[in-house]
Amino acid sequence: MKFSALLLLLLSVNVSAIAADTESAKLWLEQLSKSLRQLNFTTSFVVVKNNHAEPYHWLHGIAEDSQELEIFSRLNGPRRDILRQGAIVSYIEPEQEPYSIISNDVNSPIPTIFRGDISAIEDSYRFISVGRSRVLGRVAQLVRIVAKDKYRYSYWLWLDQQTGLLLKMAIFTRQGLLLEQIQFTHLEVSEQLSENLVQLQSSELPGVIKLNNQQQNKSLSWQVDWLPQGFAVIKSNQHQLNNYHQGDDKAVEFMLFSDGLVEISVYVSLSHEKFRAPEYASDGATIIFNQIIQGIEVGVVGAIPLATAKKIAESIVAVTKMKVSNNTQRGIKGAER
């Protein structure tokens, strides 16, 4: 009897400790989100993957009218700048006409959810506050975002104890293999906007492009019949891809899914070939998977394990009239089989 009582006491203490670690982790992640939206900061970081480091420069600030301003710049190779004034994001690249889109986020190596509501991914990931270490000469809190299943990766974040800002991020497999990491090399927080952001505030950005609503809303012929739990469609369209080898245009259907943290792109098209064995390549955590089965070519791209990409590709099915009607009303929902 005494042994059973002691065991129950130990279990309750352990559960309480886990709950406390989870709550602490959520508070840190909420502070990260708040800091990314409200602080004026200048920072540099490198994305390290496949034994290659890609450097970036990132400026963020809040104007007097509360408008968020951002500049993301890639420092190696052809210059690529991303500018943001509030809900207008502009992309400036060489040999391409500058353009703007309506968005509150920039397409960068930093996951969008980090500046949003972290509770949106609680069904798919666990949050664990681990302990403190030292990164970039600063005291950092380590928070783990751990996948609840085998179909996605886990993320480790080192957050500045003073500001809550990100100092380092690493992506791990379920077996603990490091795939990719982001290491910050400079961080400066200030009360005033940087000079570059002051200039951005008064700059006229390129014109906003408008998407073709007819193509965006067009019913697709194919759908993904399996996705890890928590993934849902956020965009789909059909477009023409010039096929230089065949001398004609190729209709490609595109679907973009997200679990809040990770995005998966799926491309489906008819092929002149009947079969091609699966081919894949990895870029850090990102897998690029392609195969042809029964004349249907499927490509899957995302920061997911190879087995997940393969299972998604093999689940592609034709959309029946009944499914078209249902999907129009509620979209494609990810479901675990």
UniProtKB/TrEMBL annotation:
Which residues are in the MucB/RseB C-terminal domain? Answer: 217-316
Ranges for domain MucB/RseB N-terminal come to 24-196
Instruction: Name the gene.
Output: rseB
Q: Which UniProt keywords apply?
A: Periplasm, Signal
- Family from the record: Belongs to the RseB family.
**Organism, as annotated:** Colwellia marinimaniae
User: Cross-referenced Pfam families, in alphabetical order?
Assistant: MucB_RseB, MucB_RseB_C
Signal peptide limits: 1-19
PANTHER family attached to this UniProt entry:
PTHR38782, SIGMA-E FACTOR REGULATORY PROTEIN RSEB
Identify this protein by name.
Sigma-E factor regulatory protein RseB
Query: Cellular location of this protein?
Result: Periplasm
Look up the coiled coil feature and give its residue ranges: none
Q: Which InterPro entries does the protein's record reference?
A: MucB/RseB_C (IPR033436), MucB/RseB_C_sf (IPR038484), MucB/RseB_N (IPR033434), MucB_RseB (IPR005588)
Chief place of localization: periplasm
